[in-house]
Amino acid sequence: MGLRDRIAHAWNAFMGRDPTISYRTGYGNAQRPDRARLHYGNERSFVGAILNRIALDCAAIRIEHVQLDNDGRYEKPIKGCLNDCFNLAANADQTSRAFFQDVYMSLMDEGCIAIVPTDCDTDPSYTGCYDIYSMRVGRIKEWFPDMVRVEVFNEAKGQKEEVMVMKSFVAIVENPFYQVMNQYNSTLQRLIRKLNLLDNIDEQSASGKLDLIIQLPYSLKSPAKKALANERLNDIETQLKDSQLGIAYIDATEHVTQLNRAIENKLLDQIEYYTNQVYSQFGITPAVLDGTAKEEEMLNYYNRAVEPIVSAVVDAMKWKFLTTNARSRGQSIFFFHNVFKLVPANQMADIADKFTRNEILSSNEVRGIIGFKPSKQEGADELRNKNLNKSNEEIEESKPEGSENKEENQNGV
Description:
The protein is α+β, with helices and mostly antiparallel strands. It has three domains: 228 residues, no CATH class; 66 residues, no CATH class; 59 residues, no CATH class. 43% of the residues lie in helices and 16% in strands. It has a five-stranded antiparallel β-sheet. The chain has a three-stranded antiparallel β-sheet with strand order 2-1-10. The chain has a two-stranded antiparallel sheet with strand order 8-9. The two termini are 61 Å apart.
């Protein structure tokens, strides 16, 4: 490319192709406006860390738009706009994994959310055959018989707006743990209230107050003595405030009693009790959060906490994003959990041997699981026990066409 062509086609991210063109950027914000915001109680306590851990593990599970065979078994993924939303980017701001983490965090925080298709090739209100190009998480503000009012981020304006959408094409998901997580008097809400009380007590104890009682050497029954006591109190406060080191003097006959010692109560015991209840009801242990859980604990956690939440989201999208005609033609939405992520490296060789020997996985499929590129060697994609020799029939079937005639001609010669 010549110098003139390079100048004519040059582009710079800070200037654009034409520095004189003024672009309308729209509404601006100092923080990311589409980010999910937790409720005040969840945000202030360690409950937010638990919800974030569950949302991360749920978002790690792959969701795909798939084609089923005649027996209802997974056959292959369907390449299209819906699968791009599930595995590439759900909208202009979020990758697929960030979008699903937003879905799960909002679901556990709100209790019920809506997954709203924001860009489609046709209007879903008039036809059931449409392609979804992007989708967003919406907070349901109001319910109607056939519609819902949702607060969803409008990427064209750069801010959240409330819109009315039909229930027929919006995936409405309810938290399967609603009774123990979002109900007003549920275990998690009780724990949050106890944690807020503990925070209030900590703020009061760290507020800088001295909480002192000064015993004066005279009676305070008369108004004159009370006025004298208030004058003495103001004098001590002035000394403490004006002193660089916070030192004040009192008379030899005056006595000081300090009251800001911790008052014993059962709040910490109650918090510990509700924390254990939350762990048991969600199938979580402290080892899951700190990363030291064993395989049995992680399996119990995935089956009791992660799988119900992911299933609720997938079932809602399967119901609303796939028409009856599409489901009758074998289309569906599945989620896939990679169980080999929890397998230690020293056990992987034994598992790979058993899966290939019993013709469950091919050699290349095992190589893909452990992160190796596929092998081009003959038989690497075959479901066959490599420890057994091929039979004569298999050898004959594996020969390319025309090889028999070629061998006969060679023998005849």
